[in-house]
Amino acid sequence: MIDPRHIDDEQAMNVAVLPLDDPERAAAYVHTRSCARCRRALERAIELLRHLEAIPEEEPPSEAALRAIARPVVADLSARTVPVRLVAWILAGAWAMLVLAAKHRAGGALAWTQSAALLTVAVCGALFLRWLRGSAVVVFLVASAVLVALAWGEMGSVTAPGFACLITELGGAALPFAILARRYLHRRTLDLGTPLVTVAAAGALAAQASLHLTCPGRNAGLHLLVFHLGGIAMTVLAACAGGRLLRRHAET
User: What share of the chain is helix, strand, coil (3-state, %, to 5)?
Assistant: First the structure.
C-alpha cells in the first residue's frame, strides 16, 4: 500500500506501472497534489518507465547461433554420459582374452612392452574421452602407425590370414560401440557421434595390441600396413557410418 505521508522512489515506480484506473494509483495522484516531493518522485518514475518502454527489443538469436552455442555444451554433457570405466575394463579384458586364447604368442620383453604400451594408449584414450574427444582418434591412428613402424621387419605379402586380423580389430571395436549405441538410442537428445567413433577406435587399437603378440605376420610390413593399421582406419570409417545410421534412426 502507498504511504499517504510519503512516496519514495520504489513506491513511485510501483505506482507508475499500475493501470490508469487502479484505485491505489488514483490515491497516489491525489496525494501528490499537496506534496511536491512525492510528485517529483512519481514524475521521475513515469519518465524512467517511458525510457524503458522506448528501448527497442532485440531480435532473438538465429537457429544457427543457438546451435553453435549449444554444440560445446551438448558435446560435454554427452562425453560425461559415456561409461568410460566400463569401456576401459572391456578393452583390457578383450586384450587379455585374445592373448590368452591364442595358440602362439610372441616371446621377448620388447614385444610385450610394445603391446602393453599400445593397450595403455587405448585405455587412456577411453578414460580421458571427455577432454580428448575427437583428437583421441588421431592419437590412436598415430600410435597404431608407430607400432607398425617399430614392428616392420620385411615387406612380406598380403596373405589370407590377414582378414582374420581385420575381423579381430573390427570385433574388438564392436562391443564398446554397441554399449554406447544402446545408450544413445535410449537418450536421443545426446550427441554421441564423436564418442561412438572414439570408443570403437579404442577397441580396435586394443585388438591390434593383442595381434602384436599373436599374429603370425606381426613383422610383415605390408600385412601390418593393410590389416593392422588399415583395420583401425576401417573401424573409424565404419563407426562414422554407424553413427550416422543411428542418428537417422533417432530422428525418425
Answer: 75, 0, 25
